[in-house]
Fold these 2 entries.
Entry 1:
Amino acid sequence: FPTRRSSDLVDVIADSLEKTFMVESINTAQGVRDTGSAFCVSPTYFITCAHVIRGYNKNEEIGLDYFDSSVISLIYGNQKIEAYLIKADPKLDIALLKSNLDSDPIEIDTSVEIGSDIIAIGSPHGYENNVSTGTVGALGRKVYFYKGAPKYMFVDLSVFPGNSGGPVIRVDNGRVVGMVTLIVADAGGYGLNAALSSSYIIDFCRKNIRGFSLK
C-alpha cells in the first residue's frame, strides 16, 4: 500500500493549523469560562460544538436564547477576536460562529473509511492548537438515543477536554471528515473518542450560510 510521506503530513498539518482556532466562551451570568476549538468553513464563518459555547443536557430541549449570556472569542496567537453565535443545533451539538478573523476555509469531504489515517487539531486543557494522529476506528455508531440524535465516527487518537469543536482531517487529502464532539467513557477513565461526521456539518452549513458550497 502507498504511504503518506512525512513531508506531506507536515504540509497538511501546517495548512490545517492556519484554519483552526481556539474558542473561549465566558458565561457572564455564571462567571464560567469554557474553551474548545473551531475551524473555518467559509470566509468569516466558523464551526464548533454547541457545548463549547455553553454546556447543556442533550436530553433537554433548549433554544438559541440559552446561549445569550455567552461572550465568545476566537484565539489567534496572542490575539483575542470577537465572535458571534449565528446558529446552534443542540441535538447535533454543532454551532456556527461569525467573526472578522481572516482565515481561508478548510475543505470538507464526506469520503472516509475505517482505518483511514487522520489527524485532529484542538486546544486540550487550553493549550492552543495541539495536533494528534490516529485512525478511524468505526463509522455510524449510535451513542445517544434521543430523537434526532446523530450517528458518530469513533476516532482512535488522543482527545481531551478542549478538543471539542476541532476538525478531524484525512491525512491523504487534508480535508475535514468530522468534528471532535465527545469522549464516551466511565467516570475517571479513558474512553472512545467520538466525532460528528462531516455529512452533518455540510448539511448544517448549507442551511445556515448563504452561498455555501464545497470546493
Entry 2:
Amino acid sequence: SDASPFFLTEAFNTLRTNVIYSAVAAKNPVFAVTSDIAGAGKTVTSANLAIALSNLGKKVLYVECDMRCPAFAKLFGKKAEAGLSELLAGIVNDSNDVVVKLGYENLDVIFGGKIPPNPSELLSGYRMTELIEQWKNTYDYVILDTPPVCEVVDAGVLSSVVNGYIVTARCNHSN
C-alpha cells in the first residue's frame, strides 16, 4: 500500500524485477509461490509481488491455490465465496465468474473457494492445465499462491504448468 515503509516497498520491487528478468524468454509466465512450512510469509510475499507487477501496468491474475488453508479472505478483508475449487470441480465453468477485484488496477484475484476433499487431485488434473492456458492468453503474469512444500504435495503437482517457483523462508525459523 501507499503507507508501506520505503524499504518494504523496495524489497518487493526488487523481487518483481528478479521475476521479470527470470522469465524474460517466457510468454505470459506463471509462477508458484510456496514455502517450506506454514507461517513463512508466502501469501504476503505473493500478494505483494502480484500488486508490484500490476503497478507496472502488467495484467496480473493472483490465484489462491492453497485450498487446504485459505488465507485470502482474511488478508484482503473480503468474504470468500466460489473460487478455484469450484472451477476445478466444474461447478463454475468461467473464471470470470469467480474473479474478485480488490481496487488495484490490472489485478484480478481468484480465491480458493470452498475447501475440497481432494486439493492435490484437483490441482494436478487436466482442468487446471486448461485454466492455466486460458489465463496465459489473458494475463501478462499468473501468480499461484500454493501450500508449503514440506507439508503437502500440492505445490509440486503444478510443476508442469509453471515457469518457476518462488520459495519463501522465515528468518530464524525455517531450516
